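> call design_seq(struct)
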């Protein structure tokens, strides 16, 4: 029976690299807002002999996520793996200049959507599946108010779930990848030397060795 992997935030960066790394062994359910990037990913997965289901959806759309998870249940009955790489990276700004719309979007994407997805995906993972979250500890750093606070809250949710399921499953992992030349990081550090950053494909391989 084919194993299944749901990747939220699969269109680029670490999410895309994880999809490609898992393609030889898993059917990939790839979720992202950008249809073109998902189609490019699908081509790379097919080139590896794999298969994918593309879900061009916004994780903040609760109805869409409910439909997605119901579709996974109807087609496969369960999930083996969920990797959550989707994130909203609000622009860096002094805390007393945080834009209300940016904060609302950060809360919706990084906290509320994560909590909603956990409730939807947990039954699909059952006791034997695995979920993976990726930490990027920026809480308290200057100018990272929106991102740092909501990313920390996301990981707090994941840690609670991890503690609750430690003995019964699913297995919840919280990993901290090395810095990669992603679009998110480029927004935060536009002038840095990207040549010294770590390749997403190498990071994806490192992630999978820890599962």
């Amino acid at each position: 029976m084919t194993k299944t992997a749901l990747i939220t935030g699969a269109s680029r960066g670490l999410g895309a690299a994880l999809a490609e790394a898992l393609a030889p062994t898993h059917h990939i359910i790839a979720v992202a807002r950008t249809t073109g990037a998902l189609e490019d990913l699908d081509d790379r997965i097919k080139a590896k002999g794999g298969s994918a289901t593309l879900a061009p959806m916004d994780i903040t759309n609760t109805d869409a996520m409910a439909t997605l998870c119901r579709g996974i249940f109807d087609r496969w009955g369960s999930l083996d793996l969920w990797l959550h790489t989707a994130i909203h990276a609000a622009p860096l700004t002094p805390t007393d200049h945080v834009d209300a719309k940016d904060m609302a979007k950060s809360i919706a994407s990084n906290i509320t959507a994560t909590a909603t997805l956990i409730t939807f995906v947990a039954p699909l993972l059952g006791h034997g599946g695995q979920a993976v979250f990726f930490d990027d500890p920026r809480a308290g750093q200057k100018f990272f108010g929106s991102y740092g606070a909501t990313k920390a809250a996301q990981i707090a949710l994941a840690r609670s779930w991890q503690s609750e399921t430690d003995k019964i499953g699913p297995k919840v992992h919280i990993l901290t990848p090395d810095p990669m030349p992603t679009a998110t990081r480029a927004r935060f550090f536009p002038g840095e030397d990207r040549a010294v950053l770590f390749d997403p494909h190498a990071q994806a391989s490192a992630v999978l060795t820890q599962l």
